[in-house]
Amino acid sequence: MKQGKGVGKAVVFALFITGMIALFRFTPVREYISPDYLQGLVNSFGPWGPLAFVLLYAGGICLFLPATLFTGIGALLFGTLHGFIYNELGAMLGASLAFFIGRYLGRDFAAGMIGDRLKKYDDRIAANGFATVLYLRLVFFPFTPLNFGMGLTRVSFREYFLGTLFGIIAGGFILTFFFATLAEVWRSGDWSQLAGWKTFFSLALFVASFFIPRVIRKIKPEGAS
What is the mean pLDDT of residues 137-166? Predict the structure, then answer.
């Protein structure tokens, strides 16, 4: 009975993922997923714009929309500091919701499919939950698949949440700062600012972020693979 229930949830989970991908790939909905449209939508909420943005970011994550899109919009709308805060809130809320969707709809089925050979890896991941999630976040493992995927494992939500929180801070700030700097130059119309220290610093951080995975792999914690 329990196995049948797990299969039923897994089918719903698979249909959910397939449906979301099909929705944005084959329907007119994708035309509304543009920076200009989303920016106008957030601005239409006035003083509630930040809250609307956080919820929109979280919903987008659950619907398999790219997190980078919302990070850029957050930087454009709110600047570096507030943009970073709202981006982090939206990303964490979306990551948490996606984790629970994966845990509720797919974990029972995944547990039933795991044989003795794979169980040791599931146990190993669970025993090193925080380190595993932190490592995968720092090496820029695809954000949304990891959110749902970790829900299928035995990793506790607490370790998943903390690993995600600390794992996305550096990359989130770098991207927000980079996009906010470009937006500032674009708004001013003074393209000579592209030669300013702020632009070069943000660009240097952005380029440096691509080397983070190499550094992290060299100090990879035991149990994080």
Answer: 89
